[in-house]
Amino acid sequence: MIVLLTDFGESEYVGVMKGVIYSLCPTEQIVDLTHTIPPQSIREGAWVLLNSYNSFPRGTVFVCVVDPGVGTGRDPVLVKTKNYTFIGPDNGLLYPATASDGVESISTIIIDEDASNTFHGRDVFAPAAAYFIRNQSGKVLGGFKQSLGVSLKFNQNERKGEVVRIDRFGNIITNIPPADKIQYLLATSDLRWNVQWYPTYFLGPDRGIFIVTGSYGTLEIAVKHGDAREEVPFKIGDELSLE
């Protein structure tokens, strides 16, 4: 199984990557994890991958393309972990998930001289996944690396953390774990909100923001039947505390 994660949205680029894979592996199963990562949002892509990869069977190959540095000196890599294989740019996107599962080896992927400088998803990462599935990865792999070049880590310490994901419903997802509290003080360096925790979105107040424990097992800022971004000015990577 090959699983795709990109920031390509509803574009032809996803279909083209699948076409390349199917051309080399016509019977392979391809699953779309998501293509809704905001453009160039490496941190958000890394969070989604970290919290999703172990929902898939062992042996799954993840092809991940959130790559603002495409065509530059960053390495394309294939990382084998204890249970999975991850393919993508060495820009921090793969680091949390691969570290979580335990890195066994890291190989660079050869960039063919005819490869586009703007579409490595098609010309580098998709073929690498297909050849790996076919047990012909020697066609595309270069040398080994001792470690990934970018060690992306999320800021989290007790009740302090960061915004890691904003989903399509406008829920602002943090990496802060829940606590046995109903009332919270939501704070940034210069702003404060008193917010209450509710067990479900449905039970939240009809107006204003509130807190729920989301499907990632962390606290989310939500608005019932609305978009929390219209109430609080958070974006990915913003630091905050819930006390």
Please tell me about this protein's structure:
The chain is an alpha+beta fold and 243 residues long. The chain folds into two domains: 2-145, S-adenosyl-l-methionine hydroxide adenosyltransferase, N-terminal (Rossmann fold); 160-242, Beta Barrel (Elongation Factor Tu (Ef-tu), domain 3), CATH 2.40.30. Helix content is 18%, strand content 30%. The protein has four helices and 14 strands. The protein has helices spanning 12-24, 42-50, 95-101, 120-133, and strands spanning 2-6, 30-34, 61-65, 76-81, 85-89, 103-109, 141-145, 160-166, 172-174, 183-187, 192-196, 209-213, 219-223, 239-242. Helix 1 (12-24) runs parallel beside helix 4 and helix 2 (42-50) packs parallel to helix 3. The longest helix has 14 residues, at 120-133. It is elongated and about 55 Å long. The N and C termini lie far apart (42 Å).
